Amino acid sequence: MCTLSIPVNIFTFSIAINCCCHSNRVDYAFSLLATTFKRGFVPDVVTYTTLIRGLLSQNKSQEARLFFANLIKFRQVQPDVVTFNTMIDGLCKTGHADMAFWLFRSMEKCDCEPDTVTYTAIINSLCKCGLVDDALNLHSEMMEKCILPNIWTYSPIIQVLCSLKRWEEVGLLLNQMIHDMKISPNVHTFNILVDAYSKSGKLDDAKHIIQIMNERGENPDIVTYTSLMHGYCSKGQMDEALAMLSTIRSKKIMPDCYTYSILVNAYCRELKLDIAMDIYRNMASDGLSPTVVTHNILLHGLCQLGKSMEALTFFYKIQGLGHKPNIVTYETLLGGLCKNHYVDKALSLFRTIECNGLIPESDTYNIIIRGCLWSKKYDGACKLVDKMVDCGFSSDAATTSVLRHLLLSKAQDPTLVALYQKCLH
Q1: Are 399 and 370 in contact (CB under 8 A)?
Q2: What is the pLDDT of residues 63-75, one digit of tens each?
Q3: pLDDT confidence of residue 85
């Protein structure tokens, strides 16, 4: 355009700057800003706000703060509420809640009134920090100033109140939102309530919320039903939990891996491995590939029943199908093998961890060391302690306790004494 002498103005530059910011090339955006000055244009507040948003989107919060401070210091432009909101939201999301709150309180000094977006960003940040009473005070403040809250203002407060089991306040806030403010909860807000009630064992309240959802035309989704299923599982009501799977399918909702994993875990806890395995196999019929979490649950269940060799066979089978284990997988198997006196198998498995691109952790070492101690493989335990210490780890309370117990019965064993001193050191 410039080469063809087609006229450009500040709006043309602002569009180009916005495109650069969205393309994660904020460096190009600032080059264009320099060009606007060379051509005699004066960037407006929209241009500067766009640049601040661009810096924040690339996690350059320090640069954004400095840029914003210079705008005010040198009076290059009068920031409007959108500029402040952009800066406050970015600071909240990058963990600078204190600075965001200071900026929020500084708005009025700059002749700029906070709006719903401003308050919502600060309230959300306070709730994430667990400061629900401060969030409630701020909510009251905005109501006094006739700044109307929205669903995103209420949802984080309701969520943290639920986590603190302050049910009476949850009810009051929900009633205010629906009846006084005429704000209809969305699926996200309803799911917060269903999940909280289910986890607290208030299943009747959770079902009542789902009933309200249906009455208000908000269709429950997989998150809603999975939360209720989790509640049934926690209370050992396995028939109701399994029935939820049928309900999900009847609603034409696709179960996900998390849904299945909850059921598998619950049946494993009930020591009903046959049903857990059937549910695991049914995942394929829904086109789902089990995650490492699902496999770890089943391996733990097998080990709990003393079927550690079956667990090992299952481990090699899923590995052959291309499923990659994580360090928890190995720790589960090592614990099961050691507990059931297959320490040689455990040692052999331990040696394969690094071959699979994983690094043993403190818990991994302690599990296998305890296995060696239980099986009187004191020399092996000694070598593993040395290796563990070289890796910067130390023995945990359980390992030290096993050593103390052995020393009481074999006080004169020099290997054990040396091992105990190493662990204490």
Answers
A1: yes
A2: 988 888 888 777 7
A3: 92
Residue 267 has pLDDT above 60, yes or no: yes
Query: Which residues, 6+ apart, have CB-to-CB distance to 385 below 8 Å?
Result: 365, 369, 395, 419, 422, 423
Find tokens 């020591």 and name the residue. Answer: 271
Q: Note the pTM of the prediction, 2 decimals.
A: 0.80
What pLDDT, on a 0 to 100 scale, did the predictor assign at position 398?
87
Confidence band (pLDDT; 50, 70, 90) for 409? Answer: confident
Q: With helix as H, strand as E and coil as C, how does the chain read?
A: CCCCCCCCCHHHHHHHHHHHHHCCCHHHHHHHHHHHHHCCCCCCHHHHHHHHHHHHHCCCHHHHHHHHHHHHHCCCCCCCHHHHHHHHHHHHHCCCHHHHHHHHHHCHHHCCCCCHHHHHHHHHHHHHCCCHHHHHHHHHHHHHCCCCCCHHHHHHHHHHHHHCCCHHHHHHHHHHHHHHCCCCCCHHHHHHHHHHHHHCCCHHHHHHHHHHHHHCCCCCCHHHHHHHHHHHHHCCCHHHHHHHHHHHHHCCCCCCHHHHHHHHHHHHHCCCHHHHHHHHHHHHHHCCCCCHHHHHHHHHHHHHCCCHHHHHHHHHHHHHCCCCCCHHHHHHHHHHHHHCCCHHHHHHHHCCCHHHCCCCCHHHHHHHHHHHHHCCCHHHHHHHHHHHHHCCCCCCHHHHHHHHHHHHHCCCCHHHHHHHHHHHC
CA dihedral 109, 112, 114, 118 (to 10 degrees): -100
CA dist 125 and 139 (Å) reads: 13
Q: Is 23 exposed, middle or buried (0-12, 13-18, 19+ CB in 10 A)?
A: exposed
Please say whether the beta carbons of 96 and 128 come within 8 A: no
Of residues 420 and 228, the one with the higher pLDDT is 228
Residue 396 — left, alpha, or beta (φ > 0 → left; ψ -120 to 50 → alpha)?
Answer: beta
pLDDT bracket for residue 296 (50, 70, 90): very high
Give the Å distances, CA to CA, from 366 to 27, 120, 323: 50, 47, 26
Amino acid (one-letter) located at 308: S
- Residue 211: CB atoms within 10 Å: 11
From the list 136, 204, 183, the residue with the least C-alpha distance to 174 is: 183
Average pLDDT of the residues of the chain: 90
pLDDT tops 90 at residue 344: yes
As a whole number, mean pLDDT of residues 167-196 equals: 93
